[in-house]
Amino acid sequence: MKKCVIVVMFSIVAAVFLWTAAVTAEDKLATQIDDSMKASREEAGSEAYLFPGWIIDLSAGYSLSRGNSDTSDFLARAAVIKKFEETWELIARGEYAWGEVKNKDTGEYDSTADRGLLNGQANIFVIESGFLYGRSEVSYDKIKKLDRRLDNGIGVGYELYREGKTFAALEAGAAYIDSKYEDDQRDHGIYLRLAQSGALVINERVTIVESVEYKPKFDDFDSYLINGEASLRVGLFSQLYFMLSLTDRYDNTPAAGTQRNDLSVISSLGVSI
Asked: CATH code for 2-272?
């Protein structure tokens, strides 16, 4: 039943996308971006101080994690968005965390945490509010005994709503994920991907940002990954901001001897340039 529900959800998203594409093509709007979306993207690109057309975001902070370990991390993040003309964009993100792990028996921090992630996604806006995407991601996590995970996929997306920097979007696709663990355990195969992201601008300084993705294995829906994050971003002055985030990373089939869930609270300072 669970597998049927997810396949139906995936099919509905894809069907809506294709139906919209057909209607738009009849109206000769298949290759145009909605005027309000153009304006918001152009405005975002023009806000970059040093690199017109680029949005570059850098942050560093402190993370407390619970799950596989009680971890205190230093966390650094970077994000780059480049607008190419008016019909496609490239998004790249990186993350690295390093810190100390608390021994649950002694209460001492006697080992280190080490994890990182790098991903890139290209969005091609082929219809009004709708896009095709291709994405690639590589990550590792020593605490979860994950030597490396490769995640490459394609799919479709649709912006349900956009007004300025407030938006809500859905994505649906498929990916080939190959995970290799320290004990020579390996898991790989085709996964479906359902994702949602959004931002709500409260006022000139305060924005709420959130995202969640669910990736079940196509031939075994008991094997799945869930990643979610919700953040409160507060502008301080000029391009400097403070962010408080809650993230959750869930792997239903983790490496032997590790737990499924990792929950983190992150406080950071960042700058947009």
From this structure: 2.40.160.40
pLDDT tops 70 at residue 32: no
Task: Give yes or no for a contact between 90 and 122, defined as CB atoms under 8 angstroms apart.
Answer: yes
DSSP 56-75: EEEEEEEEEEESSSEEEEEE
Whole-number Å distance between alpha carbons of 181 and 153 = 21
Q: 246: pLDDT confidence band, cut at 50, 70 and 90?
A: very high
pTM: 0.79
Judged by phi (left if over 0) then psi (alpha if -120 to 50, else beta), residue 164 lies in: left
Instruction: Tell me the per-residue pLDDT of 93-138, one tens digit each, with 9 for 90 and over.
Output: 999 999 877 666 666 666 677 899 999 999 999 988 899 999 999 9
Work out whether strand 54-66 and strand 166-181 pair parallel, antiparallel, or are unpaired.
unpaired
Q: Residue 175, exposed/middle/buried by CB under 10 A (0-12, 13-18, 19+)?
A: buried
Token output for 253: 């089939």
| Rounded average pLDDT over 192-215 | 97
* Structure-token pair, residue 250: 């869930």
Across 187-226, b (16+ Cβ under 10 Å) vs e yields beeebbbbbbbbbebeeeeebebbbeebbbbbeebebbbb
Domain boundaries, the chain: 2-272
The dihedral through the CA atoms of 49, 50, 54, 59 has a sign that is negative
